[in-house]
């Protein structure tokens, strides 16, 4: 696979004492051999930042791909996440869970460990004590959070001695919480934008396509570029298809103009996208239907 030319732009987002590489490789909804192949391809292609999670149930496949790749472990930035269930983020359970991640990933340390989401029934002080212990013991390089609101993030920052390196949140041309992004930017917390392609739905967008045409780039590449061109924002597109893996890292040889950036920010999510999201009417209808329709039929229509 061809290694795309990487510019100084590829340099990690350095924020105070924390560092998160600008472009990572997502692994949600892939497992087994498919995940192994994708991660191995990604490493061959030049990605150095791999994102997984306990909840994805693919840490073993990710670990095997890293072990069998030609890239040294110390040249890879490996992130995983602990499930945010209250019992999982208790002090002892969290330490045990992190050790489980290390074992499945076949590594002696994690570059970044995140709490995947927050449940208000959990004790955040206990959680951050455990995360800080993991850092002090050298098992984890940096810690961070995911899907945290401003209020939760403020509390985490107050409770943790180690800096909160990132808040991994949904952010792409169709979706973003601008206030939360600004809060992170103002407080040295890198935003890791997840679902940068709106789970593949933005790749057909006419506006993104027409902007991309001017640079010889696809809508997907424009979407990724739009994110990483923002201050203190990094992103982690997922792809299993080799040509997508290759294309998504080939985003460092063009620059969107301020006008492009503004135009993309103003994009409205298409109707079907909005209504399929949690809280949208199609989503709600499906949730109700789910109670009455047999699984075999539901899976075909949902
Ligand atoms: N912290 C959290 O709660 C959370 C939640 C969701 C996601 N994430 C992380 O963020 C990562 C990315 O988000 P995501 O997986 O939800 O979605 P995504 O990256 O927005 O989109 C992935 C989809 O886009 C397709 N695709 C990728 N590159 C493409 C290209 N160049 N052209 C056309 N199609 C392309 C992929 O197809 P192929 O696979 O066929 O190539 C796949 O169907 C996840 O994998 C995960 O690591 C975190």
From TrEMBL:
Q: Does the keyword Ribonucleoprotein apply?
A: no
Q: Which Gene Ontology molecular function entries are recorded, alphabetically?
A: oxidoreductase activity, acting on the CH-OH group of donors, NAD or NADP as acceptor
Alphabetical keyword list: NADP, Oxidoreductase
Q: Which Pfam families match?
A: Aldo_ket_red
Q: What protein name applies here?
A: Aldo/keto reductase
Q: Which family does it belong to?
A: Belongs to the aldo/keto reductase family.
Q: Where is this region: Disordered?
A: 1-21
Q: Does the keyword Oxidoreductase apply?
A: yes
InterPro entries named in the record: AKR, NAD(P)_OxRdtase_dom_sf, NADP_OxRdtase_dom
Location of the NADP-dependent oxidoreductase domain:
23-267
């Amino acid at each position: 696979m061809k290694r795309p030319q990487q510019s100084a732009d590829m340099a990690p987002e350095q924020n105070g004492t924390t560092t998160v590489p600008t472009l990572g490789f997502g692994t949600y909804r892939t497992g087994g051999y498919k995940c192994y192949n994708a991660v191995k391809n990604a490493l061959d292609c030049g990605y150095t930042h791999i994102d997984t999670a306990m909840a994805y149930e693919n840490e073993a496949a990710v670990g095997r791909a890293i072990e069998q790749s030609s890239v040294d472990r110390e040249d890879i930035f490996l992130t995983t996440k602990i499930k945010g269930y209250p019992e999982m983020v208790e002090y002892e359970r969290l330490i045990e869970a992190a050790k489980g991640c290390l074992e499945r990933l076949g590594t002696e340390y994690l570059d970044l460990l995140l709490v995947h989401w927050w449940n208000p029934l959990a004790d955040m002080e206990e959680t951050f004590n455990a995360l800080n212990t993991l850092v002090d013991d050298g098992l984890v390089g940096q810690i961070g959070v995911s899907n945290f609101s401003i209020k939760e993030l403020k509390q985490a920052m107050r409770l943790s001695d180690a800096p909160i390196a990132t808040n991994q949140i949904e952010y792409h041309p169709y979706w973003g919480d601008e206030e939360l992004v600004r809060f992170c930017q103002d407080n040295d917390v890198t935003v890791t934008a997840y679902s940068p392609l709106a789970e593949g739905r933005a790749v057909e967008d006419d506006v993104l396509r027409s902007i991309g045409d001017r640079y010889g780039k696809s809508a997907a590449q424009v979407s990724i570029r739009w994110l990483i061109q923002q201050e203190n924002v990094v992103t982690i597109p997922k792809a299993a298809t080799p040509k997508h893996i290759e294309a998504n890292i080939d985003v460092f040889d063009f620059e969107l103009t301020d006008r492009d950036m503004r135009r993309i920010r103003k994009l409205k999510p298409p109707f079907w996208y909005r209504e399929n999201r949690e809280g949208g009417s199609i989503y709600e209808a499906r949730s109700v239907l789910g109670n009455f329709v047999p699984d075999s039929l539901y899976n075909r229509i949902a």
